[in-house]
Design goal:
62 residues; mainly alpha; 95% helix
């Protein structure tokens, strides 16, 4: 009986461990995507477009 409980607990630990490792892998992939070189270029482009829109918007109002 006790051995069964211990066995179940070990199986559960392994399951939880694998879930945690997969979530950390996903987090790493997301971080790589966000901080990656390609996304940096995308961020710069978005910033430039945003500045351009702001410039047009404020120059029309002013």
């Amino acid at each position: 009986m006790i051995a069964k409980i211990i066995n179940q607990a070990c199986k559960l630990k392994i399951k939880i461990g694998s879930v945690i490792s997969t979530t950390s892998n996903i987090k790493k992939q997301i971080a790589n995507f966000i901080y990656g070189e390609a996304s940096l270029k995308r961020l710069k482009m978005c910033a430039m477009i945003f500045c351009l829109i702001n410039f047009i918007f404020y120059s029309e109002r002013g």
